[in-house]
Amino acid sequence: MTKKIAISIPDDVAERLEREPNVSAFITRAVRRQMAGEHTRQTLRQVGFRLSDADLAAAGRQLDEAQAKLTPELRAKAAALLSEASSGRLAIRE
Fold first, then answer.
1. What's the chain's Rg over C-alpha atoms?
2. Contact call for residues 70 and 79 (beta carbons, < 8 A)
């Protein structure tokens, strides 16, 4: 079932949505990602983890920094190693 709703959004967000062929699907995916994050944080709290917004922001920055270091060369090397490992040809290095 679906429900039609009207929302007010800032101009910059509206401009971004205008580029989407299916705004409803785009918004649905975005809200579901948000809901998944909320569920994950709730689950972590239930098992004893306390993550503040500052903690999450710091982790996000660390992830961004790590991803920025992934050059095309490193991606190619990783793909080659994965291929070797999955084929059983990977020599164990010590």
1. 21
2. no
User: What is the C-alpha to C-alpha distance for residues 76 and 69, in angstroms, rounded to an integer?
Assistant: 13
Give a yes or no: residue 56 inside a domain: no
Question: Could you tell me if 17 and 26 are in contact, meaning their C-beta atoms sit under 8 angstroms apart?
Answer: yes
Q: How many helices (H) and strands (E) does the chain have?
A: 4, 0
Range of the domain at 37: 11-51
In a domain, 20, yes or no: yes
84/90 Cα distance (integer angstroms): 5
- Amino acid 28 reads T
pTM assigned to the model: 0.59
What is the percentage of the chain residues whose pLDDT exceeds 70?
95
Q: Reduced to 3 states, what is the DSSP secondary structure of residue 92?
A: coil
Which pair of tokens denotes residue 5? Answer: 């709703």
